[in-house]
């Protein structure tokens, strides 16, 4: 990619964010009252960021002017369960981050906790630790033991840096004599409803493309990204394709947080950040555009917000606009200055199926070191954290007859002093799979393994194991978890001394291999669409996908389209540079593609045109669903059909659907067999927003399954009311076995025909031999 910058670009070359933040802080101090100056002067340069609210509410991305207060519960920061602090030195905690465009001026922790009545107050306490430094030590008086205590702790802003960790540590003792360091009376519980409260002040940032994706997306911000996209009144399909590439890029950056992109027509948000798309013919109102001589990307201030920014994606026509969007999505790291003109983009190699950067490679074994940082594969202590390896698999892997996914596991650990019950436990998505015993320095006969010690100067024991993971335990997105469990042997009174010097590691050269599994899946299956964007994400750039919008779409239709593409970018980790956008009237031109249909019954004519192919029909106050009969279910069971799928439509039911907001329907394309259609339907434009929000909410997304998902309030009801079609390819012999296993009647018929054929052959053979004998006698 070649970039041309304006003549004054050298004055705004790639800036260092830390230096920029320091200059802005100095300016802020100069303008502040004397008292405020003294307070802000105590904030280190590294702490000039703050997280935004993590309550999941959709608000425009970007800082607010002035001072504000933001709250996190420990659960929002990642503590799924209350902290259980046990033993003489129990520790647990969560990370939290701070935005690059905000400065922390105050912090408080509103803690809810309970502790054991057996703790000796003079010897026990609970430490609040921020980044390794003790922020407060909480006493444990006898009169409050066993009750829920609420306490506010002030945290000095100097302790808060860019990336932080908040730990709670129990120092517990129950006797002044010899004690068991793991005695059951040594405990404290900290509620995950405890709140971390931060007071922050917004800071402006330079108009520099080198800072991208800041300030539009900040990886320190743990809440959902909400970034408005601004268009002229009626953007062209090419402009929408450009916007889809950008939204999927931001969706990939947002990752687990999720991202939504509310569309605005001729209206720039009054505050915060936004992305603006403009050409000579499509110029949104309220934005002063710089001169454009080609595909151009620029950053300018938001006219209504001194701290807000507008990311301008421009071109003289829609083709140049799309080129600018591709340059932004594929080469943002090469941009700098306030404005950059993209003069050339090298030919992008076509994407291959299943090569999405976020997906596990299917052409070779994959090392754990490619999936996790090496430091995260190492743990220490008698109560270590889990070693986590995140996996994202193509959702159409086929492992019939359960051969499993092979893992060549390599791991190391500090050998046990004697043989005990210590193990390495292997879990998949929180479900136990295997346990491997940890060996001791001495064998069962008590002989010292001197040869082993010489071969292992670091004192650790390397082990290997081959594991077969059942594919049904590996959904599209899951996690391998390795837990070193150490047995604690009690030696008697006054002899139980805990020396916490044990370590464990999963070798980064361990591998997982799915290259031997074919791709074959029964569709429709909205679960794989909701979790992975499949089948559209089969090609990471969505080059075999067409999005069909209404012929006269509104802002809600654009919002749904952009948010869905952001969701697919999160799945693949790659921008949707190959997606095609068209209207309902031109759908025949994209018949060879998988189709994503967006709209309401009022503005999307395909919903009525394809009603006979769809498992649902919706109007403003009426919904139609396809049902099956008991007879069809029994017949399908005899034919080998899966009970939750493959059911023949026996009746169609229309019901009052005033409480139904939206539906998600999957079915085979009426235009070409083997191609898929997923329709995102709202009974009103607001219903589209409700459905895209549901796809970004993990609790609701888990309910999306089958061929139809109906949204009513916060509840999603999923149905399987459509016959399956199959996508992918199996080896011939495997396909024959699988086909017969699904159709026992055919197997019985084939066996009968084979028996008849064999009997006929034997009859003819014996008759010929008998004729020969009679002929010989004559």
UniProtKB/TrEMBL annotation:
Family of the protein in this entry: Belongs to the AcsB/BcsB family.
Membrane-spanning segments: 745-766
InterPro entries per the UniProt record, alphabetical: Cell_synth_B, Cell_synthase_bac
Classification via Pfam families: BcsB
Keywords: c-di-GMP, Cell inner membrane, Cell membrane, Cellulose biosynthesis, Membrane, Signal, Transmembrane, Transmembrane helix
Summary of subunit composition and partner proteins: Tightly associated with the cellulose synthase catalytic subunit.
Tagged with keyword Protease: no
Region (Disordered): 40-65
Signal peptide: 1-36
Physiological role: Binds the cellulose synthase activator, bis-(3'-5') cyclic diguanylic acid (c-di-GMP).
Organism field: Cupriavidus malaysiensis
Origin superkingdom: Bacteria
Protein name: Cyclic di-GMP-binding protein
Compartment(s): Cell inner membrane
Pathway of action: Glycan metabolism; bacterial cellulose biosynthesis
Membrane topology annotation: Single-pass membrane protein
Alphabetical list of Gene3D superfamilies matching this protein: Galactose-binding domain-like
